[in-house]
Amino acid sequence: MGEANGNGAAPTIGLVLPGGGARGAYEAGALSILLPALEARGERVSVVCGTSVGAINAALLASLAGLPADAQAEAILARWRSVRRGDILARLISPRLPLRLARLVGEALGLPGMRLTNLLDPSPLRGSLDRWIDWGEVASNVRSGRIRSLAVVATSLSRGRPVAFVHGRGPALRPAGDEEIGYVKTTIGPEHVRASAAIPILFPPVRVDAPKSAAGWYVDGGTRLNSPLKPALALGADRVLVVAFEPLLRRPATVGEDDHPHLADVAANVLDGLLVDQVVDDVHRLAAVNAFFVEDQTTGGSPAARSYRTVRGRAPYRKVSYALVAPEEHGTIGRLAAEHLAARYGGLSALREPDYALFSLLLGGQRASRGELLSFLFFDEEYIGALIDAGRSDAVRWLDRHPRLWCADPAHDLGMDVGDATALREGRALEEWREMRRR
Description:
Elements: E1 13-17, H1 24-40, E2 45-51, H2 53-63, H3 69-81, H4 85-88, H5 97-109, H6 124-132, H7 135-144, E3 149-156, E4 161-168, E5 182-185, H8 190-196, E6 206-208, E7 216-220, H9 222-225, H10 229-234, E8 239-243, H11 263-292, H12 303-311, E9 321-325, H13 332-345, H14 354-362, H15 368-377, H16 381-401, H17 410-413, H18 418-438
Parallel strand pairs: 1-2, 1-8, 2-3, 4-5, 8-9
Antiparallel strand pairs: 3-4, 3-7, 6-7
Helix pairs in contact: 1-3, 1-16, 2-7, 11-15, 11-18, 13-15, 13-16
């Protein structure tokens, strides 16, 4: 059976799934290895948190929680291997394209009655979610306790902050740094998941009506909180599985090119900041807390900090073990997208899917940033298969390195030495002191 936590009870396992469009297939590949590995240890995921496509995978997993791990893995892989572009997006090149372009120009010029809130049409996703996910099973698995908490994160346009819609147990205590995250208990349905996946500008905002207290328009949770690690800990996870799309070592600085940046370069940089960097930053904060941890499961770094957290209704710092699955090299997924686009839709083959040819043209031809952007919207079956294989391979690599699955040592996987850990500990203590002064 799984090892007990500091209180003698079986640990609560949390799963953290960030957003990334078609990259969700990578998450599916990683889960197909991790879920059976957990079951072999007598453990299972009971807190599931996702943003954007991670919210889709989180809800899918919650619907499958009554199955053995091998069956869950096969079902997740089958869902993703069946995904096609038409399941997610309506065709861009269609008789409606001139009207869409006219609305885009009218929106830019401020012409009355000419509005365009989104460049792409994700209307097929509504029906696809109902085919892929058994919402009755989600509710049943939450009621039975197979899933303790399912959380999907979206961004409220009226409040300007991330909202975690929680099906199941809500957070008992407000964790540090979560003042800007709203927690709303509800029965999660397709509208919450579509809201979490409504990429701004590309997709239209989604109206959420339940619960009434949080009704309003929402967009992709990745704009504010792409890596829902904080909600997983707030919902009681003692250990966390995190899937990321870039290595968790920070990207080395590079010297800028001489040529003027293309639109694709700027957009890729913005996406890195919104999506990739958030995951890396959250994992490094987790490592900082582990480095800051100095006594036992119920104590933090100093009596003053512990007293402050208790008065504010926050749980004390605790050491959190983790499993982190990510590619070994930066840009791996972007390169996969570019390679498969060239192989599948290069030359006259582009006539089979002219939307992809148009995307490639708009995103900068042969520029490296093109692959990074295409990797979010490239729902091609062979590319999806390659992502699944990459996720499985990287999960196996983690297990080879960590035969017991879990790790809590920031020096082991994040390239931190003793000096780095000391700096993290001191930085976290300074952050706590500054917050105490602000209050």
